[in-house]
Amino acid sequence: QVQLVESGGGLVQPGGSLRLSCGASGFAFGAYAMSWYRQAPGKEREPVAGISAAGGTTSYADSVKGRFTISRDNVKSTVYLQMNSLKVEDTAVYYCKRNRGDYWGRGTQVTVSS
């Protein structure tokens, strides 16, 4: 069955960096666009970044443009989110999602705090 497993979250100071990973299994990873979403306490889940199946096209929420980079390795069936210049308002649970079908990982907590 489809499985998505996020990792790489943690506690980081403002201005710091983290790299999230999402390992995929149970489907032909290279055939699907993938996305990262996040949900902060008391807020709705929101899209953060997306990447096409081959990796040639990416998109970002305005709030993370210039700071976050989405990428993928179709050999390793993994999608990444490099997060730089982190802000307190980036604190959230981060989820990866397969763009077709309602498939989500369980999420990884990112906390930005001094």
Write up what this structure looks like.
The protein has strands at 3-7, 10-12, 18-25, 34-39, 46-51, 58-60, 68-73, 78-83, 92-98, 103-104, 108-112. Strands 2, 4, 5, 6, 9, 10 and 11 form a 7-stranded mixed beta sheet that branches. The chain has a 4-stranded antiparallel beta sheet with strand order 1-3-8-7, with no helix packed on it. The protein is built from no helices and 11 strands. The model has no long low-confidence stretch (mean pLDDT 97). Strand 4 (34-39) and strand 5 (46-51) form a beta hairpin.
Low-confidence segments, given as residue ranges, are: none
Strand content bin: over 45%
Query: Sheet with the most strands?
Result: 7 strands, mixed
- Overall average residue pLDDT: 97
- SSE string, helix = H, strand = E? EEEEEEEEEEE
Overall helicity: under 10%
Distance from first to last alpha carbon: 40 Å
Structural class: mainly beta
CA radius of gyration: 13 Å
- Annotation, overall tally of beta strands: 11
